[in-house]
Amino acid sequence: MTTGRIRGFIDYRFYVDGYDISGYSRDIGEFGISHDDAVDSSVTKAIKGHWIGQATVTPGVINAVLDDTAGGLHASLRTSTDRDLMVAIGKLAAPVDGDIAFCGQFPQNSYRGGGDATGLVAATLSLGEGQHGASTLGYACPFGRLLLAHAAKTAANSAVGFDNYSGAATALGGWMMYQISAAAGTGDITATLKVQHAATNLDGSFADLLSSGVLNLGSGGTFGGPYSGVVALGHTADVYRYTRWQIALGTATSVTAAIAFMRAYVVQ
Amino acid sequence: MATGRTIKKYVYMVIEDSGGTMRNLVMTECPDIGFTDDIVDVSAISDAIRKKFTGQSDFSVTITFPFSDGAAVAASSSGTAPAESGAHTILSALTGGVTAKSFGIYFGMQHNWTTGDPVFGGIDTILVSNYKVNGTTCSATFSYAGNAAAALAWGAAAITAS
Hints:
The complex is a heterodimer. By secondary structure, chain A is mainly β. Chain A has one helix at 73-77; strands at residues 12-16, 19-20, 25-28, 31-40, 49-58, 61-65, 82-89, 99-115, 121-127, 143-153, 174-185, 190-198, 207-211, 215-216, 218-219, 222-223, 227-232, 242-248, 252-263. The relative contact order of chain B is 0.25. Strand 4 (31-40) of chain A pairs antiparallel with strand 7 of chain B.
């Protein structure tokens, strides 16, 4: 993992409800978080004061191409419903473990096809602001660490983890999102995806922090997904300084997934 | 120390990070920094010319940075070029926080900012309410905190952490 400035959309990747739509996507509009601004202009104040209010997370619009390949964006995401979005952002290369992630659970506003200036038939996937109504996530921290860049995994992780932006442990909770685009095995295909944390960045120091629980990803040796999901800590949960991904394969022999952890740095 | 005019090359930002350490951030454009003051119109219809008072001041600014997760590094000292910490590294951990943070915009006069050059800011004065990413840049909104410990002001000394 390198750190530093971002080259551009060529190093972005997009995952929605377990689908890897990167091969269909061209860019994404502005995304991030904003808070209501309550202005305190009491008469004794020479300078008006501002207070942080309710948060709104904006996912941006994904500009893509209309392509009806089975399992692609058009075939899978053209109907508006609640969506799990993960944007992975690499530096001078495709995202790798430890890069930046932006994640959230959003209501889909629209899916539209139409021509663009070049004549290509384009598609736009628009997700609404905030969290979708059925989400129980309760976290206004959409930016996190891409602990596992989208890849097929066939064994547990023994690598060291990644530091966080404060360089210290936190006690404000956090949440994980996973996106699973493929899995293999014989019979039922089960696996558990986890985020682990440690106070010292050594393989043997890591302990489970968050777990998807046992996921049944298919039967008869056939993948039943894609799948995505979130798991959240309590808002005062301790999170050690370093985090990493982990997998317990169960009956699966391979799982292709991405995992991100969004650490809370401010009170939720 | 030179005095007079300068160029935006010598303008940069300092901010107190989530751990209480001052960091340098570099910007993609020179922001318009300063107060916006209410203007209270007290004119009577018979006045030959409208009469107005200056009212309360306000401070809120959105600044754009290179989108970077570069490591947090020690802020530069007087007379040296800014030591860039990644804007994403610093700002994504501050957004939404309710603790006022130290903040300043340094205007180096024809050279890297040196003590005595203009500064706008203050100790424990601002909150970060918005943080957005747009391709290769990110932007954040900084506002004077309702629970600020001091006033924002123009000065000529380095801004320190609380």
